[in-house]
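Aim 2 progress update. The chain analyzed this quarter is reproduced below.
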Amino acid sequence: MPRLLQDWVTDHAQRLPDATAVVLDRDRLSYGDLEVTSSRLANLLVARGCSPGDRVCLLMPKTPLAIAAIIGIYKAGCVYVPLDPTSPAARLAAIIRACEASWVVAAGPVGETIGALYGEQGIGDALRVAWLDTVEPGAVPVAAVWADACAAPAATVPRARADSPAHILFTSGSTGVPKGVVITHENVVSFVEWAVREFCLDESDRVSGHSPLAFDLSVFDIFGALAVGAELHLVPERCRMLPQRLAEWVRDSRLTQWFSVPAVMNYMSKFDVVRQDDFPTLRRVMWCGEVLPTPSLQYWMRKLPHASFTNLYGPTETTIASSYYRVPACPQDETAEIPIGLPCDGEALAVLDGSGRPVRPGVTGELYIKGIGLSPGYWRNPQATKLAFVINSTSRERMYRTGDRARVGEDGLFYYAGREDAQVKSRGYRIELGEIEAALNAVRILREAAVTAVPSADFDAVVLCCSYVPQPGQPVTPATLRNEVARWLPPYMIPSRWKAYRQLPRNATGKIDRNRLKEDWRGDVADAA
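Predicted structure tokens:
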């Protein structure tokens, strides 16, 4: 019988029903509670006609109930699709349509968003709402309510296979349409089982849950804890972006593991909120999603000499992370390069040239990944899947083309060397500049617009800069443009710098000269730092 993600909860509920599973402030669920609550939701979905393989979206704040809902979706034999409550309704509607979701499980202050989905976005005929709050969301029709779950019959659902989709995570798409990355139960179980062995996680751990549910790092937060019967401590929203409060929360929670994007650690170091020998229970500090500046790493390692520090690397398409590097000692030089290390068990990395042949050590090429973490591809998007998941002409192995540049050092370790394309990372989110430009090009008061990403020493690591040309006679302000694109883009994708041009510079081929724009912006960003 294959191990599925929900099995870990059932196992620990039988063995340690009273042990704490998920915590958010004073809101707690034991493993027994998590098992019962998730089974109630599974029963409710099945009783209302949800079938194995159906895509079920989750639209609610990150709470213990949300974690139970994820487990319940799996128990119903369905595929979990997280929706970011901070994203505009238009983007959420595009995701719902793309994955052909049949249900959305919702709770919390999302009634207005659901109303917009049913109203201006017009998806009410195809989508049913399972509402888990006691107060229903206004005039929006609800197909199932939480109170009915008690009376729902026991769910009898065929068990999924290990290679069945567990969830679909939508990333930014260069054409303006988000792409859905399919991740299987086997993909996640393999990574988590490796991480448990490598980092010696056990039921005494108190694990952070910082990443949003729509971000793939949250999968390790959740199942890294639940796999071993540990406690998952969700970071309260009031603390997520306030460094002093976040440091206080880490102390009060007595965490043993911290895992986040580097931007958060960088932010905390810049505000110097970590005391010497702080967080005495913290055993492990891990980061993934982008480059952590070496000065920030030095800060953390000097403040916390008792903790281990690990850099993890991997795109969503290869499940959480594909390589890791345990930093053996605090770097002496603030310009020292931190490697992305060696492959996780069951994974392999290769640096290839433009013809798909391995390059020599020290030579930079494109990074490819193969192994057990590879996604089956993009949800019902064979063209994008074929472009990204390729068959190596020499080895005939299926590999993911990351679009990242890398090299192998003399020490045999892999080193990240930037991006190949117009994709950037900010706060760990993967952003296609083309998706932002697609939203801008839909704004009628603009003739044209281009978005560039300029490196910065601030919290985001890059600054998204928009250069635009207004339509003749149209009054255009940055505030107007921000409001327009906010209807389509989540906050982290909205440019923070805006500049009007009479016309955008062109190169010899007549295309927008993005290098000139980037240089134009570089001075402005540096002056504002």
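The chain has three domains: 5-183, 235-419, 424-528. Residues 232 and 325 are 24 Å apart (CA to CA). These observations will guide the mutagenesis experiments scheduled for the next reporting period.
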